[in-house]
Amino acid sequence: MFLILEAKSIAPGIRRFVIQAPRIARKQQPGQFVILRLYEHGERIPLTIESSDSAKGTISIVVQSVGKTTRLLNSLQAGDTILDVVGPLGKPSEIKNFGTVVVIGGGVGAAMAFPTAAALKRVGNTVISIIGARSREFVILERELSAVSDALTVTTDDGSYGEPGLVTGKLRQLLDQGTHIDLVLAVGPIPMMKAVADLTRAQRIPTIVSLNPIMIDGTGMCGGCRVLVGGKSRFACVDGPEFDAHQVDFDVLLQRNSIYRGQERESLAEFEHDPEAQIELVRTGSAEACVLAGGRS
User: Fold this and answer.
1) Which domains does the chain have, with CATH numbers?
2) Is the Cβ–Cβ distance between 58 and 52 less than 8 Å?
3) What pLDDT score was predicted for residue 12?
4) What pLDDT sits at residue 264?
5) Which of 71, 111, 138, 248 would be 62's cystine partner, CB 3.0–4.6 Å?
6) Measured between alpha carbons, how far is 188 from 38 in angstroms, rounded to an integer?
7) What is the pTM for the complete model shown?
8) pLDDT tens column, 64-83
């Protein structure tokens, strides 16, 4: 059992959780993730670790309400528990002095990109960050990323904050201005990452994307997170989650991510029919499991 120490809304439908997980906190490196399960019959979902504190034994994750499980998770409060949190999983980000690095976070991708941006800055890179959101109220981690960036640009689709337009528009502007870029890291929606890869491919700028496909066990055994990279099958959970963007087949990735769209809609409809009952199931199940485990958290 894993105790939730803090649960705070940072944007509509987006919450940050601080979870007691000392062993994960001691081992976590930028770019890695956890797979969690809320209750015995719940699904397993991967979530990137935003930050960790080895001294306090805590990890932080940022969660956007999309389907049933993320809505259930975002209904929990400090003092509630999560049945399983497994990690850290995946290969850590490659951290070295590349030179000038552009870090791009679309939506909650900003939370996934933050720990890598901070680590790249610590080893001497010039970090230019671009984060995007639909509108001002959905902008997250602006202050945190600004603190580890030499320059930060916020873009919003509706122009309500920062610069109007998409993150790719700002990247294109940097390229058109002749800004020297040694590496691009893009994290966010698949169409955004694909668009970034298309922009940088012509300039031959090394580009990394972090993929978050469907995952079950996180060990490469189930094959659910299979991605096509350079014409070969790779598993995002053990070979990634970061890959060469110019080698990723984004069309196959989009197709595979939509395989269970029907079941996801049915599950969400079940939750929306009686959300309180679903939330109580999670809390009751977690409490029973804690008793069986001798009260450990």
Assistant:
1) 2-89+261-292 (2.40.30.10), 100-210 (3.40.50.80)
2) yes
3) 94
4) 74
5) 111
6) 24
7) 0.86
8) 998 888 999 999 999 999 99
Angle formed at CA 84 by CA 42 and CA 48, multiple of 5 degrees: 95
β-sheet bridge partners, residue 236: none
Question: What whole-number distance in Å separates Cα of residue 225 and Cα of residue 5?
Answer: 30
- Angle, vertex CA 136, rays to CA 131 and CA 60, nearest 5: 60
The DSSP output letter for 31 is T
| Per-residue tokens: 214 | 């469907």
Neighbours of 276 (CB within 10 A): 8
List the one residue out of 164, 190, 114 whose CA is nearest residue 198.
190
Continuous H helices in 162-222: 167-176, 190-203
CA atoms within 13 A on the CB side of 155: 18
The DSSP 8-state label assigned to residue 130 in this structure reads: E
Which residue in 55, 54, 61 sits closest to 19, CA to CA?
Answer: 61
| Residue 94 CB neighbours (<10 A) | 15
